Amino acid sequence: DGFSQLSAYERKRLKNITENAKFFASLKLHEVSARLQKIANKVQPHVTKRARPRKAEDEPVRRRSMRLQRAERPAPPRSRGSAAHTGKLPVSFQPQVPPGPVSMLPEDQKENSKVTEEFLAMWTRISEMKPDDAQKHSRDMERYAASLGSMTLHAGDVSKVVKARVCSMAIHPAESAVLVAAGDKLGHVGLWNVDCETEQATHVFIPHNYPVSCMHFSPANPAHLVSLSYDSLRCGDVTRAVFDEICRSEESFSSFDFLEENASTLIVGQWDGAVALVDVRTPGTSAELSANIDFKRTRTVHVHPVNKQYFLAAGALYVPHQPALCCALSAPFAPEKYLSLSFSPLLFFFQRHNNNTGRWLTRFRAIWDPKQEDCFVVGSMARPRQIEIYQDTGKLLHSFYNVDYLGSVCSINVVHPTRNILVGGNSSGRLHVF
């Protein structure tokens, strides 16, 4: 009656609200709720606190193989000993060695020391001595085989010369001392005076930023050590204690060889398939000319030992279904023969040979023995670990092994031009001298 001013609809709505309120009050729901709460307080279930989930950054990183991830293996970057080469330097490795000359100081030294000076003086001294040319001629096979059997390996003939995987080696031609140089995948160049029995026998320099894929003592002046990395070609001159920069390029160098006995010109292979001519007498660090030889990649180049106007290149071609002959790893010359080595198990006259070094070992690089031009040296995957010498007929002539002091694969090997000395380098930076 107090709401006569309201419309009929609003009066009916208020009546419904009042009746609903009386109905819920009659149910006494507040009392039921209070009783249920009292029961719940008496019987309290044991509740285990849920562990807080870890954040993604707190989780340890689990290493999973590409096979378990069902993913294709990505092509490795063309850097520091990897197999893929695309012509561009990797972004992940920023250059540390600047362009231009680099002082010949060991990596752990900031200034000259007496030990370093004595080592450089020794290198200079033995470079002034000329080897006896009369001993360079090939011997008969029986005498040669006997000399191989007399070569041994002892505890003092093994040394870790560089930090990382050996990618190239060179041996000084002196007969009065044994000086070996090794280049690794980090751009380091290590020199080992094998005759020195003290801790100062090895000296490591850093003339490059990337793997040292090729290295030779100059045939005209062994006081010069020429080394090549992806982006630079340098000449280490011991008389001036400096690594001069001969040539620089972004095309990614792969190998080189001397075109003349005076070592004034060089032929340089490039990973983009071309070859370049470099003259060390001209100013600047650019090649004189380059030529496309229709290779996908040019891995090695070697100049004929007699007819210097000819060179041999080995690499990969754009030829489908023919990887065996197109992916040669090494092709040094004997005057009338050449030697090629590929991923397939074929080695010289189709002799079967296990060349599958895998991803973590430096690829095999076969070399001719300069003392016996019809025999060559190559690494081996056989056990016990060994270095093998073959005749050009494919016959295995000798295997160098020592179960006590040689327990790894020597992918890179070098032979002294006049003495019975063989040096093998492995993928941990260690050299073995037979």
TrEMBL record:
What InterPro entries is this protein classified in?
WD40/YVTN_repeat-like_dom_sf, WD40_repeat_dom_sf, WD_repeat_DNA-damage-binding
Q: Which UniProt keywords apply?
A: Repeat, WD repeat
Please provide the Gene Ontology terms (biological process) for this protein.
regulation of DNA damage checkpoint
Is the keyword Repeat assigned to this protein? yes
Q: Name one GO cellular component term.
A: nucleus
Tell me, what is one Gene Ontology molecular-function annotation carried by this entry?
Answer: DNA binding
Region (Disordered) location: 43-111
Function field: Specifically binds 5-hydroxymethylcytosine (5hmC), suggesting that it acts as a specific reader of 5hmC.
Q: Which family does it belong to?
A: Belongs to the WD repeat DDB2/WDR76 family.
- Supply the PANTHER family for this chain: WD REPEAT-CONTAINING PROTEIN 76
Subunit structure, interactors included? Interacts with CUL4A and/or CUL4B.
Q: What is this protein called?
A: WD repeat-containing protein 76
Q: Which organism is it from?
A: Tinamus guttatus (White-throated tinamou)
Lineage, top ranks: Eukaryota, Metazoa, Chordata, Craniata, Vertebrata
